[in-house]
Design brief:
Length: 536
């Protein structure tokens, strides 16, 4: 068995350069060559995981099938490569320190003074090598969050420095930097990149490959200059220009020979260049799709990263329906009876977004009522499904105070409730249904037709459930509970079959939609929105 190779991806100059997309692209290109890969993210913040972070702070919280709340970059890893990540693919400073402190309390260190070096760095190294040792991948790609020079990421970089020595020819470091264009001087400037590499070198790490993010083409002279100043071979200076979509990046990186340079640095045979056939077909369809459908996203976070997986799932579904999906954020806090028609009338379909807490829910209820009455294709996800249920309870069943006990603990019609065995748990993360659960679909239901099978498995991230005491009454009045969990009989999916497309899911289908395997619910929802547009 050949030894696992490790690729470390670091970033400099500025955050948000796209380390996650580059890491995903490297994974995709190596996978296309027949290698078995995984990608992991090490985040320097002290939170244990992003589960309790406000989406404004950190974008969406992505959930793995095994129930870990993780960084949104893991969504990119899965969408690009089709791999399934786990709780071990995302590690934070908080988790590292928690583990070390627990060991210290147990006496595992035999009375030694606990220090950043070696104890914290050893723990980081152990986690960086864990997946490779456990599953014997050909490649483990490790992305380190933050920017070189941040005080928080120093222990991670020190761990990489040590691992580069430990692993020898089985490790390479790819460093992402930014080459800004100064409009006044009409020049690209390499100085920020030089400083970033110098900072990395001062920590004992010599990058093997530089990926330069830029808005303008980098000529051969400029690349040679960067190579000279940064001690990197000229062919290992790769440019990554802005692309119309992130899905172009693997193809561009292949043209730039990023995968070839990585294999050469690791002294591995290069072989034939893969055709990336299915990926290129996807891009071709994407380019050819010119007609637009408009989808309203009713939510409270006016930040595209807060709904990243939903946006990508809609975009992928658009491509496979040969349409471009244009999303319009509709702030649920500002939505009311007076302006709802103005905001949603022109939409071909509406997604009622997930979320937590009281803020903005009245607007979601108003949106659900409007869409139900106007027979507009509507997709409620997690809290969005709960809003559909509450709205139906209030306006069809006549329970004026129908609510979730998350929003109103005193409601007499708690159509959304918390399960008995969750009520005594005080730890915020402990009361959630997280990760993959099975769901059985009712025969002859719309969702059964969409999925084409009886049992599905989807990922969850929620605390409150449909109250089964009301199930019979909902069914009698036209909202059917067509998906249930086989183990605990919890309602997973509701639909109103008499409407064009009015479906709510307690789970998050967006987490499992990938470039080459778009999610069936999103495909069908977009198809319904296209039909709605064309039949108006």
């Amino acid at each position: 068995m050949s030894e696992t190779k490790y690729i470390f991806v670091t970033g400099g100059v500025a955050s948000s350069l796209g380390k996650g997309i580059i890491s995903s692209s490297i994974g995709k290109l190596l996978q296309a060559r027949g290698f078995n890969i995984t990608i992991q993210k090490f985040d320097p913040y002290i939170n244990i995981d992003p589960g309790t972070l406000n989406p404004y702070e950190h974008g969406e919280c992505y959930v793995t099938d095994d129930g870990q709340e993780t960084d949104l970059d893991l969504g990119h890893y899965e969408r690009f490569t089709g791999i399934q990540t786990t709780r071990n693919n995302n590690v934070t400073t908080g988790r590292i320190y928690q583990s070390v402190i627990e060991k210290e309390r147990r006496g595992d260190y035999l009375g030694k003074t606990i220090q950043v070096i070696p104890h914290i760095t050893d723990e980081i190294k152990r986690d960086m090598l864990y997946l490779g040792k456990k599953h014997h991948y050909d490649f483990v790609i490790t992305e380190v969050g933050g920017t070189v020079g941040d005080i928080e990421s120093l222990p991670f970089l020190e761990a990489i420095r040590q691992l580069k020595w430990d692993l020898g020819k089985n490790a390479v470091c790819v460093h992402l930097a930014y080459v800004p264009y100064l409009a006044a001087a009409k020049e690209l400037k390499t100085k920020p990149t030089q400083h970033s590499v110098k900072e990395l070198q001062s920590l004992g790490i010599q990058p093997d490959i530089l990926v330069l993010r830029a808005e303008h083409e980098l000529n051969a002279g400029l690349r040679k200059k960067v190579a000279n100043f940064c001690n990197v071979a000229p062919d290992a200076v790769i440019q990554s220009l802005d692309e119309p979509t992130i899905y172009e990046v693997p193809v561009r990186m292949q043209q730039e020979k990023l995968d070839v340079v990585i294999l050469q640095k690791l002294e591995m045979p290069v072989g034939e260049t893969p055709g990336l056939g299915p990926w290129r077909s996807f891009l071709e369809r994407r380019h050819k799709a010119t007609e637009i459908i408009n989808i309203g996203l009713v939510g409270k976070y006016d930040l595209q990263d807060a709904y990243k997986s939903i946006l990508e799932a809609l975009s992928q579904a658009g491509t496979y329906n040969d349409y471009k999906v244009k999303t319009h954020f509709v702030n649920s806090e500002k939505l009311n009876e007076e302006n709802v028609a103005c905001e949603l009338e022109s939409m071909d379909g509406v997604v009622i977004c997930p979320g937590f807490g009281q803020r903005g829910i009245e607007g979601k209820l108003i949106a659900a009522k409007y869409c139900r009455e106007q027979n507009k294709p509507t997709f409620g996800i997690c809290l969005g499904m709960q809003m559909m249920v509450i709205e139906f309870g209030r306006n069809v069943l006549g329970y004026a105070d129908a609510n979730s006990i998350e929003m109103d603990s005193k409601t007499t019609n708690n159509v959304i409730d918390i399960m008995e065995d969750q009520k005594n748990i005080t730890n915020m993360g402990g009361t959630m249904r997280l990760g993959g659960y099975e769901c059985q679909l009712r025969e002859n239901s719309k969702v059964r037709g969409i999925y084409g099978k009886e049992t599905i498995r989807e990922r969850h991230r929620h605390r409150y459930e449909f109250n089964n005491d009301y199930r019979e009454e909902y069914e009698r009045n036209g909202m059917e509970c067509v998906g249930t969990n086989p183990d605990c009989d919890l309602v997973e999916i509701v639909e109103i079959p008499t409407l064009k497309w009015y479906i709510g899911t307690q789970f998050h289908p967006e987490y499992s939609s990938t470039v080459l395997h778009p999610h069936p619910l999103f495909l069908d929802f977009v198809k319904a929105a296209i039909e709605n547009k064309n039949n108006r």
